[in-house]
Amino acid sequence: MSQFEYISSNPDETGVFAKRLAGLLAPGDVLTLEGDLGAGKTTFTKGLALGLGIKRTVNSPTFTIIKEYKGDLPLYHMDVYRLDDSFEDLGFDEYFEGEGVTVVEWAHLIEDQLPGDRLAIGIYRTGDTERRIVLEPVGDRYRKLCEEIMA
Ligand code: ADP
Ligand code: MG
Does residue 38's CB lie within 6 angstroms of at least one atom of ligand 1? Predict the structure, then answer.
């Protein structure tokens, strides 16, 4: 499996990287975000939202599971951290197949419900403000997308 890596030295760099990625996204794209609490998943999503032309502030949707934002492309921001029953069906498919881009924080908790093709992103803390961002594309479209963003 191909893997792409970006080293971010501060929150701004993470945001700018995510914003650049957003410029390559299309309706129906699904991104998963893994990483410990405080790794930078929500920081990444905020950058992504800027890149999608979303004006509202994106906050961690911890208490709502799914938040929807209107932009040039809509963003469906999911944080499934508090989902106590992973088999609970909240109609995720409608988002995955919708007109927007879906970002799922703690995606492994709903592994069985994720679409086959997706861009898996891991964020790892390697220093106070340094993060290793690892992109693992599943499927052709996402592999090409990664090649493009890394070019
Ligand atoms: P998560 O959603 O993974 O729990 P958050 O994005 O909410 O994480 O929080 C990440 C925290 O780490 C923020 O306070 C952010 O400012 C800080 N941080 C420091 N360096 C970085 C970096 N390079 N990339 C992203 N966040 C960083
Ligand atoms: Mg978060």
Answer: yes
Query: Which domains, ranges and CATH numbers included, belong to the chain?
Result: 4-84+91-145 (3.40.50.300)
62 pLDDT higher than 80: no
Ligand with smallest separation from the Cα of 62: 2
Number of H helices, E strands in the chain: 4, 7
- Ligand 1 atom with the smallest distance to the CA of 8 is 23
Of ligand 1's listed atoms, the one at least distance from the Cα of 105 is: 2
Q: Locate all alpha helices (DSSP H) within 23-67, ordered by sequence.
A: 41-51
Query: pTM of the entire structure?
Result: 0.94
What is the interface pTM, i.e. ipTM, of the complex? 0.99
